[in-house]
């Protein structure tokens, strides 16, 4: 099961996150999301636990728990749909408007 973990301390390391969840069972991976421009933590991450029962227990007991001085948010991660299929922006026509104007001058 993939687990979302939010409200993390910005100095928390992935190994520390892994250790928190290993108290509840096997952890396949622990990833803290890093801002690509600043190189700093965005304050959230994901933990993958192969055993769903252990993952659910971790979610139940860790959601709202204090870790590194912060009350973390823990819940099941829901996979997002493909971003492009949900895009609702305008067209790339520099003239604006939704229709192509072949007679535009």
Tell me which CATH architecture applies here: 2-Layer Sandwich
Count of alpha/pi helices:
2
Global morphology: globular
The description of the largest β-sheet is:
4 strands, antiparallel
Mean pLDDT: 87
CATH homolog superfamily:
RRM (RNA recognition motif) domain
Order of helices and strands: EHEEHEEE
User: What percent strand?
Assistant: 25-35%
- The tally of domains stands at 1
CATH class, anyone? Alpha Beta
Task: List how many beta strands DSSP finds.
Answer: 6
Cα distance spanning the termini: 57 Å
Throw out a few tags for this protein.
alpha+beta; Alpha-Beta Plaits; 4-stranded antiparallel beta sheet; two-stranded antiparallel ribbon; 6 strands; 26% strand
Describe the 3D structure:
There is one protein chain. The protein has 105 residues and is of the alpha+beta class. It has one domain (2-77): RRM (RNA recognition motif) domain (Alpha-Beta Plaits). Helix content is 19%, strand content 26%. The chain is built from 2 helices and 6 strands; from the N terminus they run βαββαβββ. The strands form 2 sheets. The chain has a 4-stranded antiparallel beta sheet, covered by helices on one side. A two-stranded antiparallel sheet has the order 4-5. Strand 4 and strand 5 form a beta hairpin. The termini are far apart. The mean pLDDT is 87.
């Amino acid at each position: 099961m993939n687990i979302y973990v939010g409200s993390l301390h910005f100095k928390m390391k992935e190994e520390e996150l892994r250790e928190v969840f290993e108290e509840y069972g096997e952890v396949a991976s622990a990833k803290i999301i890093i801002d690509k421009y600043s190189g700093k933590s965005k304050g959230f991450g994901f933990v993958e636990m192969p055993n769903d029962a252990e993952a659910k227990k971790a979610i139940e007991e860790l959601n709202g728990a204090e870790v590194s001085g912060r009350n973390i948010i823990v819940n099941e991660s829901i996979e997002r749909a493909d971003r492009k299929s949900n895009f609702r922006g305008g067209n790339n026509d520099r003239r604006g408007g939704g229709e192509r104007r072949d007679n535009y001058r």
